Automatic annotation (TrEMBL):
Protein name: 3-hydroxy-3-methylglutaryl coenzyme A reductase
Entry-linked SUPFAM superfamilies: NAD-binding domain of HMG-CoA reductase, Substrate-binding domain of HMG-CoA reductase
Biological process terms in GO annotation: coenzyme A metabolic process
Pfam families assigned to the protein according to its UniProt record, in alphabetical order: HMG-CoA_red
Pathway: Metabolic intermediate metabolism; (R)-mevalonate degradation; (S)-3-hydroxy-3-methylglutaryl-CoA from (R)-mevalonate: step 1/1
UniProt source species: Salegentibacter holothuriorum
EC nos: 1.1.1.88
MF terms in GO: hydroxymethylglutaryl-CoA reductase (NADH) activity; hydroxymethylglutaryl-CoA reductase (NADPH) activity
Length: 456
């Protein structure tokens, strides 16, 4: 594909196939969908079709469950489901399930868990659990009159969502506040109902969106009957009603600390020098966005893996966390470190909207299992675990980066992937793992050694 004079040209072979769009694809059976795909894009290759079928679950009920999670399912896409044990969090010893394809991540988490386990463990606390949703609308008229209308209609909005909020209220949640926000300085006639919610153990997306749509409906209807409004003012135009994935008041903090001399694991560097270098690495991520993005990516390695394993919405978590990282107008580090009075401290503060009930949590067998492994946590407890996983990951990354570099450990883990790619036998893997304990792994050196072994 290439760009020319603002037009996109698609490779001609592909373009000829794409000149005939398919209608009614979603109504085809799974087999028909695969046949169409094979014929249209895969040159009718039986091998490609076999790959799709190979990943079907032989338990047809389990397969159907996965088919129905989303639309147009053809097969399953596996991710490794692993475990990082020995996490001491607020005095409890937990094993953290992680779903991730990247080598080294689980090993790094486990290593950090072991390190901090013998130095008091991780301390984590939930700061707040407030979630946000907004009704975006246009109002054409006098702002004071809109404010008076809003105050009059607010109790009716709360009343109108009672059928939706009743159960949530029994669990201690519900609508916390509805505020009118004037956004006309940014877009002419644009206002919001800015709403705050408590959703307890559910992530709350459906709950919040249902409340918002009801607010919008009642707000618009009531405006029609509000005597003080002119006919133009009565016609409030609802643009959209949707939760926000930016949740800066649904916040969790996790921390580790120890006397600086206890940072002495690496024989080549003393605790104080290690701490100073470590803190500078964090400071760099605080001031330098190019580094901050990679620094935070490493944190997300831990966070996403737990969020995925526990069936939560990692896209929501990602967008909310990155927005938080840029809240002061410049993208910055999510973690911070200090050395004061001989105590090294390292902490993270992130917004996290998570659920441990609803959604996939009782549907997906592995998600259920992940939550069982975590001892059926509340949403607040899960927030703490996820923050700790992010902090641990960042500790491991900065530890490696500021001492040995990451390639040494990373390439050892990567060795297995390279050997698997070349269909190495168990005996070959064993022999080459041994060889590379004293040699540097690169892709070419691994392939060369495998060739040598096969020729010998
Ligand atoms: C790799 O997935 C993550 C790291 O790049 C994170 C970092 O640089 O801090 C190692």
């Amino acid at each position: 594909m290439y760009l020319n004079n603002n037009c996109i040209f698609v490779h001609s072979k592909l373009a000829s196939k794409m000149t005939k769009p398919i209608t009614g694809f979603s109504r085809l059976t799974k087999k028909q969908k695969i046949d169409w795909l094979a014929e249209t894009y895969l040159k009718d290759s039986p091998e490609d079709v076999a790959v799709l079928r190979q990943y079907w679950n032989e338990d047809s009920r389990l397969q159907q469950l996965h088919d129905e999670f989303t639309e147009n399912t053809l097969s399953n896409f596996y991710l490794p489901f692993g475990l990082a044990p020995n996490f001491l969090i607020n005095g409890d010893l937990l094993a953290i399930p992680m779903a991730i394809e990247e080598s080294s991540v689980i090993a790094a988490a486990s290593k950090a868990a072991k390190f901090w386990g013998s130095r008091g463990g991780f301390k984590a606390e939930v700061i707040d659990t407030k979630k946000i949703g907004q009704v975006h609308f246009n109002f054409f008229g006098n702002k004071q009159k809109l404010e008076s209308f809003f105050e009059t209609v607010k109790p009716k909005l709360i009343e109108a969502v009672k059928p939706i909020t009743r159960n949530m209220e029994k669990r201690g949640g519900g609508v916390l506040a509805i505020k009118l926000k004037d956004k006309t300085a940014e877009i002419a006639n644009y206002y919001q109902l800015h709403c705050e919610f408590e959703t307890k153990d559910s992530m709350g997306a459906n709950f919040i969106n249902s409340c918002l749509e009801k607010f919008a409906e009642v707000f618009q209807d009531e405006a029609q009957n509000y005597a003080d409004f002119s006919s133009e003012e009565k016609d409030i135009e609802i643009i959209m009603s949707i939760l926000s994935n930016y949740v800066p008041e649904c916040l969790v903090r996790a921390e580790v600390s120890c006397p600086v001399e206890e940072l002495n694991e690496n024989k080549d560097i003393n605790g104080e020098d290690f701490a100073k270098k470590f803190i500078q690495a964090v400071n760099i991520a605080e001031v330098e966005p190019y580094r901050a993005v990679t620094h935070n990516k490493g944190i997300m390695n831990g966070i996403d893996a737990v969020v995925l394993a526990t069936g939560n919405d990692f896209r929501a978590v990602e967008s909310g966390i990155h927005a938080y990282a840029a809240r002061n107008g410049k993208y910055s580090s999510l973690t911070h470190a200090s050395l004061e009075n001989g105590i090294f401290k390292f902490w993270i503060e992130i917004p996290l909207a998570l659920g441990t009930v609803g959604g996939l949590t009782s549907l997906h067998p592995l998600v259920k299992l992940a939550l069982d492994i975590l001892q059926k946590p509340s949403a607040k407890e899960l927030m703490k675990v996820v923050a700790v996983a992010g902090l641990a990951q960042n500790f491991a990354a900065i530890n490696s980066l500021t001492t040995t570099g990451i390639q040494q450990g990373h390439m050892k883990m990567h060795l297995m992937n390279i050997l698997n790619q070349h269909n190495a036998t168990e005996a070959e893997k064993k022999s080459l793992t041994q060889h590379f304990t004293t040699h540097t792994v690169t892709h070419s050196s691994a392939v060369e050694e495998l060739k040598k072994l096969r020729n010998s």
